[in-house]
Design brief:
single chain
């Protein structure tokens, strides 16, 4: 089996994390769409709790990952 090589490039995009604008969007979502869900009121804390890590651990995983 031969390895397939695809032309690609690396892009560095800005990423917001646990910022006030994201929190405002979550609050608006809670008020207008779904007031209760397992991942509310803080989806980052939900990810941390679900995976047995802290919020900083979630940030490190998200920011160090490569996406294709």
């Amino acid at each position: 089996m031969t390895a397939l090589k695809l032309p690609s490039r690396i892009l560095h995009l800005p990423m917001a994390f646990h910022d006030r604008w994201t929190r405002q969007a979550i609050d608006k979502y809670r008020q207008s769409v779904r007031p209760e869900a397992a991942y509310l009121p803080d989806n980052v804390q939900f990810l941390a709790d679900t995976n047995g890590i802290d919020v900083e651990g979630v940030r490190k995983i998200l920011f160090s990952a490569s996406y294709m």
